[in-house]
């Protein structure tokens, strides 16, 4: 498989992961265009989780225009976005402006091969305990992400519900300190032999102490064991050096158009 093939497959897996998340959240709205463009409205107050999402190398502008009308009608009070690989063409840019999506975010799309996460990989030397959460521990997950990102816990709980955390293809993790307190958290989506990482965050007072790294590497090991060939994520410019240090490299850039 070429690098371009791997990136394309990871993009499709990301789209499938968003669709699976929306399918698991009650009250969500999903629609696919004939050429594969996805509209997934979770109705969370997070634009990235209410996307018109194209995984194609060249987004289908006409589908995005058509789905934008649906998004505006079905989103209610929830902010929505348009997400795609590369840069917007004139038609996509006009559509975004028409609906007030005037904020542009450029997102590194990073991938790491999990080939090195097999049985021959040395066991981690860290004593940090990392574990997967069950659905009835969703409040723990929300509390850690709330502290890490500065978002209200109820906003996170509305997305990562007990049902979502119990979905076999969605795994929420925490890393604990020596007192057993959860201080770092993240989530992984397994689709089509690709593992998607998201929301990796550490409580501020425990940052730069190895918890995020221990968490990320444990997620990657579990992903390999579950059959994933590679892992992917969207990074911010701030988190880019950390994920590079874990082995991820930027393969391309995505664009997100949103109201804020």
UniProtKB/TrEMBL annotation:
<protein>
    <submittedName>
        <fullName>Acetyltransferase (GNAT) family protein</fullName>
    </submittedName>
</protein>
<dbReference type="InterPro" id="IPR016181">
    <property type="entry name" value="Acyl_CoA_acyltransferase"/>
</dbReference>
<dbReference type="GO" id="GO:0016747">
    <property type="term" value="F:acyltransferase activity, transferring groups other than amino-acyl groups"/>
</dbReference>
<dbReference type="Pfam" id="PF13508">
    <property type="entry name" value="Acetyltransf_7"/>
</dbReference>
<feature type="domain" description="N-acetyltransferase">
    <location>
        <begin position="128"/>
        <end position="260"/>
    </location>
</feature>
<keyword id="KW-0808">Transferase</keyword>
<dbReference type="InterPro" id="IPR000182">
    <property type="entry name" value="GNAT_dom"/>
</dbReference>
């Amino acid at each position: 498989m070429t690098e371009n093939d791997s990136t394309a497959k990871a993009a499709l897996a990301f789209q499938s992961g968003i669709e699976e998340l929306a399918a698991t959240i009650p009250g969500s709205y999903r629609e696919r265009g004939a050429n594969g463009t996805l509209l997934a409205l979770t109705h969370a107050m997070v634009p990235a989780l209410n996307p018109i999402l194209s995984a194609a190398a060249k987004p289908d502008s006409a589908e995005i225009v058509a789905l934008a009308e649906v998004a505006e009608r079905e989103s209610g009070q929830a902010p929505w976005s348009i997400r795609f690989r590369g840069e917007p063409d004139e038609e996509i840019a006009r559509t975004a402006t028409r609906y007030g999506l005037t904020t542009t975010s450029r997102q590194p799309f990073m991938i790491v091969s999990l080939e090195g996460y097999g049985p021959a990989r040395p066991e981690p030397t860290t004593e940090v305990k990392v574990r997967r959460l069950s659905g009835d521990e969703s409040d723990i997950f929300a509390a850690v992400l709330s502290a890490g990102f500065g978002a209200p816990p109820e906003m996170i709980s509305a997305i990562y519900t007990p049902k979502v955390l119990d979905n076999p293809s969605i795994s929420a993790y925490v890393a604990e300190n020596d007192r057993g307190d959860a201080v770092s958290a993240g989530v992984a989506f397994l689709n089509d032999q690709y593992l998607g990482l998201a929301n990796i965050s550490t409580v501020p007072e425990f940052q730069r102490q190895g918890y995020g790294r221990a968490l990320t590497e444990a997620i990657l090991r579990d992903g390999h064991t579950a059959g994933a060939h590679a892992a992917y994520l969207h990074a911010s410019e701030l988190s880019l050096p950390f994920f590079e240090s874990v082995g991820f490299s930027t393969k391309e850039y995505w664009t997100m158009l949103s109201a804020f």
